[in-house]
Write a structure and sequence with these properties.
Blueprint lengths: L8 H11 L4 H8 L3 H9 L6 H11 L3 H5 L4 H6 L6 H9 L14 H16 L3 H21 L3 H20 L3 H17 L3 H17 L3 H15 L6 H20 L3 H18 L12 H14 L3 H9 L9 H17 L3 H14 L1 H5 L2 H12 L6 H10 L2
Length: 394
Protein backbone atom coordinates (compact mmCIF):
# COMPACT_ATOMS: atom_id res chain seq x y z
CA UNK A 1 0.00 0.00 0.00
CA UNK A 2 1.32 3.42 -0.88
CA UNK A 3 1.86 5.64 2.16
CA UNK A 4 0.00 8.49 0.47
CA UNK A 5 -3.27 6.58 0.08
CA UNK A 6 -6.33 8.53 1.06
CA UNK A 7 -7.75 5.69 3.16
CA UNK A 8 -8.31 6.29 6.84
CA UNK A 9 -5.92 5.11 9.52
CA UNK A 10 -8.19 2.21 10.45
CA UNK A 11 -8.09 0.83 6.91
CA UNK A 12 -4.30 1.17 6.78
CA UNK A 13 -3.96 -0.62 10.12
CA UNK A 14 -6.15 -3.47 8.90
CA UNK A 15 -4.15 -3.73 5.66
CA UNK A 16 -0.75 -3.93 7.38
CA UNK A 17 -2.11 -6.37 9.98
CA UNK A 18 -3.25 -8.71 7.21
CA UNK A 19 0.10 -8.38 5.42
CA UNK A 20 1.73 -9.41 8.71
CA UNK A 21 -0.74 -12.32 8.89
CA UNK A 22 -1.98 -11.32 12.31
CA UNK A 23 -5.49 -11.66 13.64
CA UNK A 24 -7.08 -8.71 15.41
CA UNK A 25 -6.70 -10.57 18.71
CA UNK A 26 -3.00 -11.23 18.08
CA UNK A 27 -2.32 -7.59 17.18
CA UNK A 28 -4.24 -6.41 20.23
CA UNK A 29 -2.09 -8.64 22.45
CA UNK A 30 1.17 -7.55 20.78
CA UNK A 31 0.35 -3.83 20.94
CA UNK A 32 -1.41 -3.77 24.35
CA UNK A 33 -4.29 -1.99 22.62
CA UNK A 34 -7.62 -3.41 23.70
CA UNK A 35 -9.31 -5.77 21.25
CA UNK A 36 -12.46 -3.64 21.37
CA UNK A 37 -10.55 -0.46 20.50
CA UNK A 38 -8.65 -2.13 17.67
CA UNK A 39 -11.75 -3.56 16.04
CA UNK A 40 -13.63 -0.26 16.27
CA UNK A 41 -10.64 1.66 14.85
CA UNK A 42 -10.33 -0.74 11.92
CA UNK A 43 -14.08 -0.47 11.26
CA UNK A 44 -13.93 3.33 11.33
CA UNK A 45 -16.24 3.51 14.34
CA UNK A 46 -13.52 5.11 16.51
CA UNK A 47 -10.73 7.47 15.45
CA UNK A 48 -7.21 6.30 16.20
CA UNK A 49 -5.51 8.43 18.84
CA UNK A 50 -1.77 9.16 18.47
CA UNK A 51 -0.94 6.78 21.33
CA UNK A 52 -2.99 3.96 19.75
CA UNK A 53 -1.41 4.53 16.32
CA UNK A 54 2.02 4.55 17.95
CA UNK A 55 1.43 1.30 19.82
CA UNK A 56 0.10 -0.41 16.70
CA UNK A 57 2.97 0.89 14.55
CA UNK A 58 5.51 -0.53 17.01
CA UNK A 59 3.72 -3.89 17.10
CA UNK A 60 3.51 -4.01 13.29
CA UNK A 61 7.13 -2.81 12.84
CA UNK A 62 6.19 0.02 10.51
CA UNK A 63 6.68 3.80 10.73
CA UNK A 64 3.80 5.76 12.25
CA UNK A 65 3.50 7.62 8.95
CA UNK A 66 2.56 4.39 7.17
CA UNK A 67 -0.55 4.25 9.35
CA UNK A 68 -1.34 7.98 9.20
CA UNK A 69 -0.77 8.10 5.43
CA UNK A 70 1.76 10.92 5.48
CA UNK A 71 2.86 12.69 3.43
CA UNK A 72 -0.50 13.55 1.89
CA UNK A 73 0.88 13.83 -1.61
CA UNK A 74 -2.35 14.52 -3.49
CA UNK A 75 -3.16 17.49 -1.27
CA UNK A 76 0.45 18.69 -1.51
CA UNK A 77 0.13 18.63 -5.29
CA UNK A 78 -3.13 20.54 -5.17
CA UNK A 79 -1.46 23.21 -3.03
CA UNK A 80 1.62 23.17 -5.29
CA UNK A 81 3.80 22.29 -2.30
CA UNK A 82 5.14 18.92 -3.46
CA UNK A 83 7.57 20.53 -5.89
CA UNK A 84 9.10 22.62 -3.10
CA UNK A 85 10.37 19.67 -1.07
CA UNK A 86 13.09 18.46 -3.44
CA UNK A 87 14.94 21.83 -3.55
CA UNK A 88 15.02 21.80 0.27
CA UNK A 89 16.41 18.26 0.20
CA UNK A 90 19.10 19.30 -2.29
CA UNK A 91 20.03 22.35 -0.19
CA UNK A 92 20.46 20.17 2.91
CA UNK A 93 22.72 17.78 1.00
CA UNK A 94 25.48 20.29 0.09
CA UNK A 95 26.34 21.21 3.68
CA UNK A 96 29.95 19.92 3.56
CA UNK A 97 30.92 20.80 -0.01
CA UNK A 98 32.44 24.15 0.89
CA UNK A 99 31.60 27.42 -0.88
CA UNK A 100 29.67 27.23 -4.13
CA UNK A 101 31.53 29.34 -6.74
CA UNK A 102 28.23 30.11 -8.48
CA UNK A 103 26.58 31.52 -5.35
CA UNK A 104 27.04 35.21 -4.53
CA UNK A 105 25.67 35.58 -1.00
CA UNK A 106 24.21 38.80 0.32
CA UNK A 107 25.84 40.47 3.36
CA UNK A 108 25.57 38.52 6.61
CA UNK A 109 23.26 41.11 8.17
CA UNK A 110 20.82 40.76 5.29
CA UNK A 111 20.91 36.97 5.46
CA UNK A 112 20.22 37.10 9.20
CA UNK A 113 17.22 39.35 8.64
CA UNK A 114 15.91 36.95 5.98
CA UNK A 115 16.39 33.96 8.30
CA UNK A 116 14.48 35.74 11.07
CA UNK A 117 11.74 36.68 8.64
CA UNK A 118 11.31 33.02 7.64
CA UNK A 119 11.11 31.98 11.30
CA UNK A 120 8.34 34.53 11.80
CA UNK A 121 6.56 33.37 8.63
CA UNK A 122 6.56 29.77 9.86
CA UNK A 123 4.80 30.95 13.03
CA UNK A 124 2.39 32.90 10.83
CA UNK A 125 1.89 29.60 8.92
CA UNK A 126 2.91 30.89 5.49
CA UNK A 127 4.51 27.53 4.73
CA UNK A 128 4.42 27.85 0.96
CA UNK A 129 6.36 31.10 0.85
CA UNK A 130 8.87 29.83 3.40
CA UNK A 131 9.37 26.63 1.38
CA UNK A 132 9.94 28.73 -1.74
CA UNK A 133 12.51 31.06 -0.16
CA UNK A 134 14.35 28.55 2.03
CA UNK A 135 16.56 26.60 -0.43
CA UNK A 136 18.16 29.75 -1.81
CA UNK A 137 18.80 31.07 1.69
CA UNK A 138 20.41 27.76 2.73
CA UNK A 139 22.72 27.90 -0.30
CA UNK A 140 23.74 31.48 0.52
CA UNK A 141 24.21 30.73 4.22
CA UNK A 142 26.26 27.61 3.42
CA UNK A 143 28.66 29.50 1.18
CA UNK A 144 28.89 32.33 3.71
CA UNK A 145 29.69 29.98 6.59
CA UNK A 146 32.45 28.27 4.59
CA UNK A 147 34.01 31.51 3.30
CA UNK A 148 33.60 33.50 6.54
CA UNK A 149 33.74 30.81 9.25
CA UNK A 150 32.71 32.36 12.57
CA UNK A 151 30.23 31.62 15.35
CA UNK A 152 27.85 34.14 13.82
CA UNK A 153 27.77 32.60 10.33
CA UNK A 154 27.51 29.01 11.61
CA UNK A 155 24.65 30.14 13.85
CA UNK A 156 22.94 31.65 10.80
CA UNK A 157 23.28 28.37 8.92
CA UNK A 158 21.91 26.44 11.91
CA UNK A 159 18.88 28.73 11.88
CA UNK A 160 18.14 27.87 8.25
CA UNK A 161 18.36 24.17 9.05
CA UNK A 162 15.96 24.66 11.95
CA UNK A 163 13.47 26.26 9.55
CA UNK A 164 13.91 23.30 7.19
CA UNK A 165 12.97 21.06 10.12
CA UNK A 166 9.87 23.16 10.82
CA UNK A 167 8.66 23.03 7.21
CA UNK A 168 9.32 19.34 6.57
CA UNK A 169 7.68 18.38 9.86
CA UNK A 170 4.52 20.33 9.11
CA UNK A 171 4.29 18.85 5.62
CA UNK A 172 4.75 15.29 6.85
CA UNK A 173 8.30 14.31 5.79
CA UNK A 174 9.81 12.86 9.00
CA UNK A 175 12.94 11.42 7.39
CA UNK A 176 13.85 14.77 5.87
CA UNK A 177 13.17 16.60 9.12
CA UNK A 178 15.72 14.33 10.84
CA UNK A 179 18.27 15.20 8.16
CA UNK A 180 17.62 18.88 8.87
CA UNK A 181 18.22 18.29 12.59
CA UNK A 182 21.49 16.51 11.90
CA UNK A 183 22.61 19.46 9.81
CA UNK A 184 21.52 21.82 12.58
CA UNK A 185 23.75 20.02 15.08
CA UNK A 186 26.64 20.04 12.61
CA UNK A 187 26.39 23.83 12.35
CA UNK A 188 25.72 24.34 16.08
CA UNK A 189 28.94 22.54 16.99
CA UNK A 190 30.90 24.81 14.69
CA UNK A 191 29.19 27.80 16.30
CA UNK A 192 30.14 26.46 19.74
CA UNK A 193 26.54 27.13 20.78
CA UNK A 194 25.19 24.79 23.50
CA UNK A 195 21.80 26.51 23.40
CA UNK A 196 21.34 25.56 19.75
CA UNK A 197 22.54 22.04 20.51
CA UNK A 198 20.12 21.76 23.44
CA UNK A 199 17.26 23.05 21.30
CA UNK A 200 18.17 20.53 18.60
CA UNK A 201 17.77 17.74 21.16
CA UNK A 202 14.34 19.13 22.06
CA UNK A 203 13.27 19.14 18.40
CA UNK A 204 14.74 15.67 17.96
CA UNK A 205 12.78 14.45 20.98
CA UNK A 206 9.58 15.78 19.37
CA UNK A 207 10.40 13.80 16.23
CA UNK A 208 10.68 10.65 18.33
CA UNK A 209 7.43 11.57 20.09
CA UNK A 210 5.69 11.68 16.70
CA UNK A 211 7.29 8.31 15.92
CA UNK A 212 5.95 7.00 19.26
CA UNK A 213 9.43 6.11 20.52
CA UNK A 214 8.97 7.59 23.99
CA UNK A 215 11.99 5.89 25.54
CA UNK A 216 14.40 7.49 23.07
CA UNK A 217 12.53 10.77 23.33
CA UNK A 218 13.01 10.84 27.09
CA UNK A 219 16.72 10.13 26.71
CA UNK A 220 17.01 13.02 24.24
CA UNK A 221 15.29 15.38 26.70
CA UNK A 222 17.85 14.36 29.32
CA UNK A 223 20.68 14.94 26.86
CA UNK A 224 19.25 18.34 25.99
CA UNK A 225 19.10 19.32 29.67
CA UNK A 226 22.72 18.22 30.15
CA UNK A 227 23.83 20.17 27.08
CA UNK A 228 22.19 23.35 28.38
CA UNK A 229 24.24 23.11 31.56
CA UNK A 230 27.18 24.21 29.40
CA UNK A 231 25.35 27.36 28.28
CA UNK A 232 25.59 30.80 29.84
CA UNK A 233 22.86 31.25 32.47
CA UNK A 234 20.15 33.66 31.42
CA UNK A 235 16.71 34.07 29.90
CA UNK A 236 17.50 32.30 26.60
CA UNK A 237 18.82 29.21 28.40
CA UNK A 238 15.82 29.28 30.74
CA UNK A 239 13.40 29.43 27.81
CA UNK A 240 14.93 26.41 26.07
CA UNK A 241 15.06 24.52 29.38
CA UNK A 242 11.39 25.29 30.00
CA UNK A 243 10.47 24.14 26.51
CA UNK A 244 12.32 20.87 27.09
CA UNK A 245 10.15 20.34 30.17
CA UNK A 246 7.03 20.97 28.10
CA UNK A 247 8.11 18.45 25.48
CA UNK A 248 8.87 15.93 28.21
CA UNK A 249 5.43 16.53 29.74
CA UNK A 250 3.62 15.71 26.49
CA UNK A 251 5.80 12.64 26.01
CA UNK A 252 5.01 11.40 29.50
CA UNK A 253 1.33 12.09 28.90
CA UNK A 254 1.28 10.03 25.72
CA UNK A 255 3.09 7.30 27.66
CA UNK A 256 0.28 7.51 30.27
CA UNK A 257 2.68 8.59 33.04
CA UNK A 258 0.61 11.27 34.77
CA UNK A 259 2.94 11.96 37.71
CA UNK A 260 5.96 12.56 35.52
CA UNK A 261 3.93 14.73 33.15
CA UNK A 262 2.69 16.87 36.03
CA UNK A 263 6.23 17.21 37.36
CA UNK A 264 7.51 18.57 34.06
CA UNK A 265 4.53 20.90 33.70
CA UNK A 266 5.16 22.25 37.19
CA UNK A 267 8.82 22.95 36.43
CA UNK A 268 7.94 24.61 33.12
CA UNK A 269 5.36 26.77 34.92
CA UNK A 270 7.98 27.83 37.48
CA UNK A 271 10.43 28.81 34.72
CA UNK A 272 7.72 30.64 32.74
CA UNK A 273 6.96 32.67 35.86
CA UNK A 274 10.55 33.92 35.71
CA UNK A 275 10.85 34.48 31.95
CA UNK A 276 7.35 35.83 31.33
CA UNK A 277 6.06 35.75 27.74
CA UNK A 278 9.00 34.81 25.52
CA UNK A 279 7.38 33.80 22.27
CA UNK A 280 10.17 35.09 20.05
CA UNK A 281 13.10 33.70 22.05
CA UNK A 282 14.42 31.00 19.71
CA UNK A 283 10.88 31.14 18.23
CA UNK A 284 9.68 28.53 20.74
CA UNK A 285 6.50 30.40 21.83
CA UNK A 286 7.51 29.78 25.44
CA UNK A 287 5.79 31.49 28.35
CA UNK A 288 2.81 31.11 30.71
CA UNK A 289 0.35 30.74 27.81
CA UNK A 290 2.36 27.93 26.25
CA UNK A 291 2.45 26.12 29.58
CA UNK A 292 -1.36 26.32 29.71
CA UNK A 293 -1.67 25.09 26.14
CA UNK A 294 0.63 22.16 26.89
CA UNK A 295 -1.42 21.31 29.97
CA UNK A 296 -4.45 20.86 27.69
CA UNK A 297 -2.35 18.69 25.39
CA UNK A 298 -1.09 16.55 28.27
CA UNK A 299 -4.60 16.01 29.62
CA UNK A 300 -5.70 14.96 26.15
CA UNK A 301 -2.80 12.53 25.84
CA UNK A 302 -3.77 11.07 29.23
CA UNK A 303 -7.30 10.53 27.85
CA UNK A 304 -8.65 12.98 30.45
CA UNK A 305 -10.76 14.66 27.81
CA UNK A 306 -13.31 16.39 30.04
CA UNK A 307 -10.51 17.91 32.12
CA UNK A 308 -8.74 19.01 28.93
CA UNK A 309 -11.88 20.80 27.72
CA UNK A 310 -12.37 22.49 31.10
CA UNK A 311 -8.72 23.56 31.15
CA UNK A 312 -9.00 25.02 27.64
CA UNK A 313 -12.16 26.91 28.53
CA UNK A 314 -10.39 28.46 31.51
CA UNK A 315 -7.56 29.86 29.37
CA UNK A 316 -7.22 33.34 27.96
CA UNK A 317 -5.01 33.45 24.87
CA UNK A 318 -3.27 36.82 24.42
CA UNK A 319 -3.92 38.83 21.29
CA UNK A 320 -1.35 38.12 18.62
CA UNK A 321 -0.21 34.76 20.01
CA UNK A 322 1.58 32.73 17.27
CA UNK A 323 -1.07 31.40 14.83
CA UNK A 324 0.79 28.13 14.23
CA UNK A 325 0.80 27.28 17.93
CA UNK A 326 -2.79 28.46 18.45
CA UNK A 327 -4.06 26.41 15.50
CA UNK A 328 -2.38 23.32 16.94
CA UNK A 329 -4.08 24.07 20.26
CA UNK A 330 -7.50 24.27 18.61
CA UNK A 331 -6.83 20.90 16.95
CA UNK A 332 -6.05 19.38 20.36
CA UNK A 333 -9.16 20.93 21.89
CA UNK A 334 -11.26 19.60 19.00
CA UNK A 335 -10.01 16.10 19.74
CA UNK A 336 -10.94 16.41 23.43
CA UNK A 337 -14.36 17.87 22.57
CA UNK A 338 -15.05 15.03 20.15
CA UNK A 339 -14.31 12.41 22.80
CA UNK A 340 -16.64 14.13 25.26
CA UNK A 341 -19.48 14.08 22.74
CA UNK A 342 -19.37 17.81 21.98
CA UNK A 343 -19.38 17.31 18.23
CA UNK A 344 -20.56 20.80 17.30
CA UNK A 345 -17.91 22.39 19.50
CA UNK A 346 -15.26 20.06 18.07
CA UNK A 347 -16.09 21.07 14.52
CA UNK A 348 -16.00 24.75 15.50
CA UNK A 349 -12.51 24.19 16.89
CA UNK A 350 -11.43 22.54 13.63
CA UNK A 351 -12.77 25.54 11.73
CA UNK A 352 -10.77 27.87 13.99
CA UNK A 353 -7.62 25.85 13.30
CA UNK A 354 -8.24 26.05 9.57
CA UNK A 355 -8.86 29.80 9.65
CA UNK A 356 -5.66 30.44 11.59
CA UNK A 357 -3.35 28.05 9.74
CA UNK A 358 -4.91 26.44 6.67
CA UNK A 359 -1.74 24.86 5.27
CA UNK A 360 -0.64 23.49 8.62
CA UNK A 361 -4.12 22.23 9.54
CA UNK A 362 -4.66 20.43 6.24
CA UNK A 363 -1.58 18.25 6.82
CA UNK A 364 -2.15 17.57 10.53
CA UNK A 365 -2.91 13.86 11.15
CA UNK A 366 -4.77 14.64 14.40
CA UNK A 367 -7.13 16.93 12.48
CA UNK A 368 -7.87 14.14 10.03
CA UNK A 369 -8.54 11.54 12.71
CA UNK A 370 -10.73 13.99 14.63
CA UNK A 371 -12.73 14.72 11.50
CA UNK A 372 -13.10 10.96 10.89
CA UNK A 373 -14.34 10.55 14.47
CA UNK A 374 -16.92 13.29 14.03
CA UNK A 375 -18.09 11.71 10.79
CA UNK A 376 -18.34 8.28 12.45
CA UNK A 377 -20.46 9.76 15.26
CA UNK A 378 -23.23 10.13 12.66
CA UNK A 379 -24.58 13.23 14.34
CA UNK A 380 -26.29 15.88 12.29
CA UNK A 381 -23.55 18.26 11.22
CA UNK A 382 -23.74 21.52 9.26
CA UNK A 383 -23.39 21.50 5.49
CA UNK A 384 -19.92 22.97 5.82
CA UNK A 385 -18.78 19.75 7.52
CA UNK A 386 -18.73 17.90 4.19
CA UNK A 387 -16.89 20.79 2.56
CA UNK A 388 -14.25 20.58 5.30
CA UNK A 389 -13.77 16.87 4.57
CA UNK A 390 -13.34 17.55 0.87
CA UNK A 391 -10.74 20.20 1.71
CA UNK A 392 -8.84 17.65 3.84
CA UNK A 393 -9.00 15.15 0.99
CA UNK A 394 -11.26 12.80 2.95
Amino acid sequence: MSPNTDERAGARIAHVRKVRRLTQRELADLSHVSYSTLTKVEQGVLPASPSVIGALARALSVPVTELTGQPYLEELRQDQLDGLIHPIREALNIYDLGPDPEVRPRPVEELERHAEKLCAMVRATDIKQVSTDLPGLIHEATTTAHTQPADRTWRLLASTYRTAYDVTTKLGFPDLCMVALDRMEWAAQRASDPVLSGMRQYLRALAYLRASDYRTGKRLVGLGMATLEQAEPGRVTDVVTGQLHLGAAVMAGRDKDKDTAEGHLGEAERIAGQTGPAEKVQWLSFGPTNVGVHRVSVLTELDLYAEAVDSAQGMTIPEGWPPSRLAHHHAEVARAEMWTGRTDAAFRSLLKARKLAPQQTRYHPTVRETYAGLEAAKRRMPESFGNYGSWLGM
